[in-house]
Amino acid sequence: MKSHLSLVFASLVSIAAISQAPAADLAARPYTKAPPAAPAVPAAYDWTGFYIGGEGGAEWNRTDGSFYNAPGFGWHTNNHTNWIAGGFGGFQKQWSQVVLGIEGGWDAVGSDWGTSLGGGAGGSCGFAAGTQYCRSRIRDIGYVGGKLGWAWNRWMLYATGGWAEASLRSSGSIAASGATFSEASRRHDGWYVGGGFDYAVLDNLVLGVVYRHYEFDSNRHDCSTCLGVGNVDFRNVSARADSIMGRISFKWNAWPGTTAGSIGF
Fold it and tell me: What class does CATH assign to 53-252?
């Protein structure tokens, strides 16, 4: 009996040793650290929203025309420069990198006058040759038009254009004394085209620069104090102007949570 028990015990020990051998031969599993999380990519800036702001800079203009009651007598003032400043507002919507919008504004213009020395009949300024001046100034400009932009995150380059209106004053002056005569003022319809760029310094604060070229239609300047028999100082006057201005605006999005790629309003 003892021999049988010894044989059984020896068999069990052998089986246990054999079962433990593979586990002993296995290498310990190496420890690996989890890879770091990828850094969050900031969302692209969204130009969608309403905005209001102010602008200011330099404006230069010239006028042309003729005295319609005195054929052969022209009207002209040379280019001159003024300050220009005002406010604007608009709305724009971004799809991918394309930005479409509409904007309107009003700017006051400085009080300096453009002049041209009279040349008499056949002259560009038909007032008395060498002794009188043609004078003009744009007092203010209003505008409303479209906007087409291309955005790179916080930068946007854009073209703009549409309808414009200006208040234009004209008169004559005496070279020797500076006394004015034949004053008239009218509002002129016209159009503008231009372009600029904006940079979003903060999500709601935008800085930019814009250039505009204006063309204003001819209109009659029929003054109440004109000199000469038959109102010969009555004239048709048109104007063209250019401006370049720095801008600052505040933008807000009326639909929080929208993204630059969204297509719904």
Answer: mainly beta
Q: Exposed e or buried b for every residue in 183-201, given b needs 16+ CB within 10 A? A: bbeeebebbbebbbebebe
Measured between alpha carbons, how far is residue 132 from residues 22, 75, 78, 221, 226 in Å? Answer: 116, 12, 14, 18, 14
User: Where do the domains of the chain lie?
Assistant: 53-252
Instruction: Output the pLDDT for position 41.
Output: 57
The string of pLDDT tens digits covering residues 125-153 is: 999 999 999 999 999 999 999 999 999 99
Long-range contacts of 177-184 (CB under 8 A, 24+ apart): 180/135, 181/225, 181/226, 181/227, 182/223, 182/225, 182/226, 182/227, 182/233, 183/223, 183/225, 184/221, 184/222, 184/223, 184/224, 184/235
Please give the residue that has the higher pLDDT: either 228 or 245: 245
Q: What are phi and psi of 131, to 5 degrees?
A: -125, -15
